[in-house]
Structures are given as structure tokens and as C-alpha cells.
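Quick one - first record:
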Amino acid sequence: MITPVLLCGGSGTRLWPLSRKSYPKQFVPLVGNETLFQASALRLSGDGFDKPVIVTNSDFRFIVPEQLSEVGIDPGAILIEPDRRNTAPAVLAAGLYLAGKDPDALVLVAPSDHVVPNAEAFREAVRIGERAARDGKLVTFGIEPTRPETGYGYLELAECPGDGAARVIALERFVEKPGLASAEEMVASGKYLWNAGIFLFSAKAIIEAFGKHAAHLVAPVERSVKNARPDLGFLRLDPASWEEVEDISIDYAVMERASNLVVVPFSAGWSDLGDWSAVWKESRQNEQGVALSGNATAIDCVNTLLRSEDDGLEVVGIGLTNVLAVAMPDAVLVADASRTQDIRKVVDSLKAKRARQAEDFPLDHRPWGWSESLVIGGRFQVKRIGVKPGGALSLQSHHHRAEHWVVVEGTARVTIGEETKLVTENQSVYIPLGAIHRLENPGKVNMVLIEVQTGSYLGEDDVIRYEDKYARD
């Protein structure tokens, strides 16, 4: 059996405004009906695969099991990183955790935000690399390049892969993201593949590789795993030990230094969806190269992507060429298709001016459901709040605001002080400033209400929690 390890702690800023720090691209259905994370988990499931181990951070710990449950996958361990430390510590933590169960366990490490249209072809490539991994090799998977791409790293092979059929080939070296001239030469030579950042090895082999090439990481990560504590089905890595861990990628820490690396070429389609141009390339297009999503209309457009991520918002393009337009309820991106690598600069600019759109998703996902701000005034805010069946907000109070709740779908159980009552559709309830209260959904369908907050301060930090079923501070 092979244990997939899915890494899903990234922020995906180059796909702003749809991907943001609070809800990044791996949890969004960018291509198709499933999210990238769900598609990755499904691709690495079935015969020959054990339950996936997930490495993520605290912000996403409830999103992960919810999205896996939606596609019928029961996860194994969900490791929670105290802070982002790049891919090397995450891979080592997963390897140490699995080695504690079986040092010879085969581990397939993969990002959770890639697109691989032919899942069966990829599983076959994994099977081809399995024997080498059992023999102690570190196996990586290289993508046959379709263009001289400057946004990817490359793998130089010891020999040309020929027709691109999946087989094990010795690796000469890793190559950093090249300039255009170098990329053109490498693609023309036929000896280079794109580095997909996907690896297969035994737990024992990767731990030995870290000990040889990045020994300074082993002790603190080992302590962090050893002192990890269970928390509502998650495994929280020890934060004190994790603070000592260097922020470094698996390529820099180990792979570029190891001598037992081999490559399995893969030519059946792949994309890391690293920017909006990549999304456009993977989207269904008409004869003019126009890709539409949501409430979008194109008139006399060529090579253009138009997306509306709001049911009540229409996006219309007229006479556009090589343009990307993505509309969210709180932000709109319009860009020349050749400038998508610069979207990180947009996020930096928004952060500098303290715009909440830089990092915060308009729909605030919580373990109990979600909330969405509809209107904000000087002393009031209107929100729409959805609570899933069995969900419950914390028992809480506020220093600076009162709240009015109007239930519009389902039934709410509301506690105010010592009184608990059911509030059904078209009924309302008032929570005075300072009152200890709780909102729950006791039903079997989603409950939605409109919340009107009034007061001198409406920030999310004006919450005093007394009890919380999700163990939040």
C-alpha cells in the first residue's frame, strides 16, 4: 500500500481574487465541479492506496475533513503545522509520523492544487516508480514540457525519455526556473522535464536523506512529532519545537543534494494552475479561445477568460483580446493575459493599504458553517450566516455590540442567558449587548439567518468565548 501525503497549506496569491490567504486555491473548484484538493485526494485513492495523510495549518483544519467527506474519502492523520515552514519540514513530519507505524511504508508526497486530467495514467506512473521506491530510491515525477515555460523548475535526465512513456530514468540534476532562452534550449534538447514537486519514497529512505543532507531539521521536527497532541481528531505538531525549524523547500533541503534520485516521466497532461493564464489553458474554450465561467458573456472576444463568482453579478466582455477578468462579490481583477505573474504585486499593494480584500475571502468559512458580510455602516453591520446541521457557534458575549437575528431558512436553537428556545423561519430574536448567548442548528438541513449588529465597535475580535465544541481559543 502507498500512503498519499497531501500538502495543503499554501496561499495561492497568484490566483487572487478567487484564491486568498483565508481560503486558497486548493479548496476552490477552479476547473470542474470538485475543488483541486478533492480532485487530488480522489486521484490518489482506490486500489493500492491507503488513507491519505494531510499536512495543513490550523486555519484549514475543519475545511480539510469537510471537503474529503463530500467526496467520500475518510482521511488518515491530519497533521496541523503551528506555522508555515515550507515543504521540507512538512514532508519530514509526515515521514516521521508514518515511520513510527512502519519504517518501510511507501509515501507519495503531492501538492493538493495540481490538475491531472488523466488520473489513471498518473496512477500507472506511480506503479512504475513503486519498485524503485521499494529499493530505496527517491522517485520524482517529471512532466513532459509542452512549451518553454519560465515559471517552472526543470529536471535534467541522464538520457532522453524518447516517446515519453513512463519508465524509471536516472536524474542528472535539478534546474532552477530558467530564462526564456535557456528554457527554449532545454525543451529542444529533449532531456529536460518540468519539476512537478511530486515524490515517492519509503519513510525510512526520506528520513535517511534528511539525516544526510539536512540534519539540522531532523531533531526539532522529530520532537515536534513526538510531542504532538491530539485535538478533535487532528494531530497538532508541538509549536515550541516547530519554532526551531528552518523555512526551506524539500528541493533545496534534500532533493538537489541526494544521489539516489530517479525520475518517472509523465506526459498525459498536468498543470499546477499557478496563475490565471494556466486556468484559461485548462478551461473549456470556444473556437475563439474564449473561456466563460458563471454569469459571463463574451461578444467579439479572442483568447479571453471571463469568470463571475457571484450569482447576482454579470460579467460582460466586448471586443477583448488576451484579457482575463475575474469578478468576486468584493473585488474585480482585469488583467492582460501576459501579466498574470504580476498579480502578487497586486496583493502586496492591497496589503500595504490594509484592504481586507488582500487576504480575506468574502465568505468566512468556519467549522460550524459560514458567514458573509452584506452591508457595513458606521455603527452597524448586516451579515448572512449559515450553520450546517449539528453546527454550533461558541457560547459567547460581546462588549461593544448587540445583535438581531432573523431566521430565513431552517430552525435555530438560541440560548440567551439561562433561556434556550427554538426560532423558526420568519421569526426573530434580540441579543442585548453583553448577554451570554449561543446559536445552534438542531435540524437536518442548513439553517440560514440574517444578523444585524449594532454598536460602537463591530470587529471580529470583540468575542469572549466561554465554551466551544471546536476547541478554538
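second record:
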Amino acid sequence: MELHISLEGTRDLGGQLYRQLAEAIRAGRLADGQQLPPSRLLASQLGLSRKTVSDVYDKLGYEQLLVGRVGVGSFVQAPHASPQRRHASTRLASGERLARWNATPRPLVQGPRSAFARYAFIGGRATPALFPHDEWRRCVQHALRQDRQERGNYGPVEGLAVLRAAIARHAAFSRGIHCTPDQVLVTNGAQQALALLAQTLLEPGDTVAVEEPGYPMARQLFASLGMRVVGIEVDEDGMMVDQIPDGTKLIYATPAHQFPLGMPMSMACRHALLERARNLGAIIIEDDYDSAFRYEGRPTDALQSMDRYGIVAHVGSFSKTMLPELRMGYVVLPEALVQAVQTVKYLTDWHTPTLGQLALAKFIDDGHLLRHIRRCHDVYAGRRERLQHWFNGPLAPWFRLVPATAGFHVAALAQAPLDIDLLLRRARQADVGLQSIAPFYHGTPRHQGLYLGYGAIETLDIDAALAIVHGILREMAPPA
């Protein structure tokens, strides 16, 4: 790669070269220790004499911005203190919009693992130790061999055919999804699927109905695109369908495991939701984020399997079943939406990286995904049992668990008014990481309580953590 130097005219060429190199070194654009081209090569590239370049190198060396190594070359020696970066003072026409983005909170952003408490009930995160790394490594190696045949070409917008077929089979087997591979669109996680659907279906000012409480990133996404976002309360059956206003064009719901409270949507509510959406001409986004883990009762198929009108877009993610850093998800689209959503994805990022797609297809087809889900299911079931023991026993005077049959998080609602923020602070001081359900409400929270993820905490640590919480609660609010 050539060093970028731009010389103008024919005067003071050596001075121009010196100033550009010195500025690049002081600004950090040329990194400390980076080797510069030999003087003969740079002179040839710039059309200068070798002596001119050598003199510039000597001057930079005198100022201790370059260091020469005999027989090796010239290397950048960055100054100890870098000057302050110059900031543009121009008033930007988009300043107000930038300010709104800068003020937008990021409620579910998680820091590095080192920042977590020792006992952390983190939502949406699995235990990396449970992941079959050896099997995944072999799938990646297989993908590298396969990818060699198509290297240098862009992939299909909708995703590789081998992965879409694997997803269609897996979704049919595990969730009762009715679709062809042509209806499957591979995405960079579930969040991209939500964005693509919103961009495809809505104009600024259109009405979107979301659950309240609900997934804050979905609400923020829709609002950021200029939509009118209406929160629909949930009860023990799920979304209260009669609150969905006329004119709604998009409905976002989590039927299998309501986020964050955890209860499943009843069959009566599912039928009512489908009828309401049909009457409105609205599309339902079914976010099926962690329903692969089911612990009791008869399996409930996805809402999409009940759809007779072509109005449910089923969004799935491999972040919960595998690893979040893979950023792999998908959406099963109603046939009427397929071409339009593909076009929006094409304009957004063209396609999802093909290497990961090939590896994931192999991982699914070889049965590794189902075996991994079963292995995690057994571990999560044990952790869920320990949570139930504590909240149905020692912690029952303060909290009650919301019944949940799937996923790997639960919500515990306060039985009486309680200073949840104080509880969180005191628990954190004792190295226990808890989270309130309050941030999942857009308006005033109807309930106080805790959101407890158990995917990333070891089973034996749950007893130690909740024993600490029990002691804090006895001091804060002694039971009658």
C-alpha cells in the first residue's frame, strides 16, 4: 500500500513532504513504530529526487519523529504528548437531529464481563462455557473450504440457500413454522430484522403498537424512524388487544415469552390478536427471541403457525441459543413482503457475511444446534428450579414470580411497596448484580420488581447470591 502524500505545483516540494509527514505523525495517522517506505521507493512514487526525500527523513529524525535502523529502514517515533485534536466549529444543518441521537439512551448495552458483579443475573446472555466450541470450529473450517469457491463475490441479499433451507427445517421442527426457504431472510441479528420491517412497511407518523412493558430497543427503533409508538398494556394473558388503536399498521409482540415479564400469550389472546391485525390490515412482528428453552406444559407453536391471513413476520435469533457475538438472525416473511424487504436489506448492507452463514448451516444440519439446545435446557432448568425455590420460599414475603414456561429469564414482582433502587445498590455493594423491571416501561411502571436472567450465572452461585439478597431484604423491610 502506498503512503498517501499529495504534492501541489512544483515549488517547495521537500517542504510539502516534510509538513505532511510531520503532521501525520503528530496527529497519530502514522502509528508509532510504523515503517515508512525506503527513500528510493518514495522518491520514485512522488517523482522527487532521492536526496530530497532523504533530507526530509533526516530532518524528521533530528526532530525525533523518525528513527533509522541500519539495514532495516526508517520507523515512526510518535511524540510523547499528542496535541489536542482540532474540532470543527461549523454549525451543522443536522445539529438538532444529532443532538436527539446523542441524547438517546441505550438501556440494554452491556459493558465488559470484568465490569459485572460476581453474582450477576444478566438478561439475554448465555454461559459461553456451555457452547460447543470444538464443533463450531470444525464448522468454521468447513465454511472456509466452501467459501474459497465463491471468494471475491458478493452473496445473495436474502442469504445463502443452504442456510435458508436449514433455518426453514429447524423452525418447522422446533416451532411449527409453516414456510418455504424463499420466505426466510437472513439478518444480522433480530434487531436488523425489526429495522428492515419498519423501514419497509411504515412512513413517519404511522402508528406502531408495542407491549407495555416491553423491549425498549424495539420501541426506540420505531420512534427513531418517526413513528407514533403506542404502548399496549399486558396482563396474565398477554397483550390487551382491545387497546390497539385504529390506524395501527404494525404490531410488535413476544407471544411465547413476554419480554420482560415472561408469561406466555394465551390462545384466546393469540386468536384475538390475529383478528384485530387482519381487520386493521396490520403486520404482526412475532419476536421469538428465546422460546427454544421450554420447561413445562405442552409445547405451543409459534403465532406464525396460526396465521391464515399472511400477516405474521416471525423473527428469530441465534444470539440466545448460541452466542450473541455471532450476530445471526432471521425473519420468516409473509409472501407479500418478501421482495420488498429484500430490497430494503440490499440498500442497507447488501448481505450478511457469508462465512458465518456457511458455518451456521453446517452447525444446524449436523445436529449440533439441537444437541446444544438440549444441553443448555438441562442446565437452565436446574437454575430455574433454584430461583423458584427462593422466590416461592424465603423471598416470598417480598416478591412473587410471574409464571413463565420458556426462556432463561424471569420477573419477580414486589408484593408490597419496596425501594427497589436501594435494594439494587445494596446488592451491588455485596457483589450481586440485579436489575429492575422499571426501565422496560415507557410510562409510569405499573409494577415494581426484578428482571432476573439466569443464562450467565452458575447454578451454585444462585443460592449464594439470593441468600445475600434475603439478608438485605430482612434489614430493609422485615417481614411481619
